[in-house]
Amino acid sequence: MEARDKEAVWVMMMGWNGLRDRFKGSAIGTFIGDALGRAVEGWPASAIRRSFGILEEMAKGIYTDDTEMMMGIMESLCEAGRFDPGLTARIFLHNFNPTRGYGGRIYGVMDRLHRGIPWNEAGTDSWGNGSAMRIAPIGFFFYDDPVKLREAAIQSSMITHKHPRGIAGAVAQATAVGIATRKGLKGEAIEVEGFIDLIIENVGEIDQEMVRQLERIKEIEGGDLEATIDAIGSHFYCDVSAIGAVPPAIASFLLTGGFKESVVVAVNCGGDTDTLGAMSGAIAGAYYGYSQLPRQWLIPLENEGKGRDYILSLADRLTDCKARNIDQRD
Ligand SMILES: [Mg+2]
């Protein structure tokens, strides 16, 4: 029996609730981190510290492009039952709402998609973190299949970000969410070096600089919240680049012991705070599960139209879809 099939048997024996909790946790974890970080997007860590001490209150639960595009990937996976890049590109275009704080280069991509240019020709050579910020659903949906996870992460990045560094960011973040889902389901502890080595294995030859930056997480000593924020902030730029944002988001999860701490550390590193929060929240939510998310952050999340409950319903549908796919395997 292959390792993947053993995994499927194990999940069936344990029931689907654990998986459902992790799918919901990762999707809503993205939303929470995005909304918490939105209030201080672009602020340096020192300015956040001066104004808030440590920022952990969510004044408004409004999401940005990170969550809007994550929802697009969830909708696409629900509709196709697999990753279809053409469909995903069409949904990105359909959902595109310029008031959600998109980066400058996305407007050209949307214009090209609107003019009928195919998904694999419309993107730019961007090395930004934009394809990693939205990737959570690919991480948790393919948590039991690293090959499909990697392939889907690469294709989903190509829609907008074709530079190897941008693609490596998407693969690293998706892999982190996938491992966190698997380990969370089994209640396994996280071991920092092993976690990073698994990510590096999947990022492989795509981009050596991403590998070097991921290796640097191993040098960081955690401590209390303030010390952990300072240590991560002094190692990484925490900016809009993939290499500047993905490693500190992963580090925020690895060097803390709960969902709340993961997201608080990520956002308080400053810089591209909504995306750092979204990515850390995606990994931590996958590991700890929706049932562990703090209530004080769930209540303010916007819920009109495509909001909190809609995202939860998509996570439910993806869990059911996963159950059908596994049941159909020999
Ligand atoms: Mg954003």
Q: In words, what does this structure look like?
A:
It is a single chain. With 330 residues, the protein is an all-alpha fold. The chain has a single domain, classed as ADP-ribosylation/Crystallin J1 (ADP-ribosylglycohydrolase fold), CATH 1.10.4080. The termini are close together. The structure holds magnesium ion.
Descriptive key words:
330 residues, mainly alpha, ADP-ribosylglycohydrolase fold, 18 helices, 66% helix, globular, binds magnesium ion
**CATH architecture level-2 label:** Orthogonal Bundle
What is the count of β-strands?
A: 0
CATH third-tier fold name: ADP-ribosylglycohydrolase fold
Largest sheet: none
Poorly predicted regions are: none
Structural class: mainly alpha
Rg estimate, integer Å: 18 Å
Shape: globular
Helix content: 55-70%
Query: What is the count of DSSP helices, taking H or I runs of 4+ residues?
Result: 18
How far apart the termini lie comes to 11 Å
Average pLDDT for all residues: 95
Associated small molecules: magnesium ion
> Quick one: CATH class?
Mainly Alpha
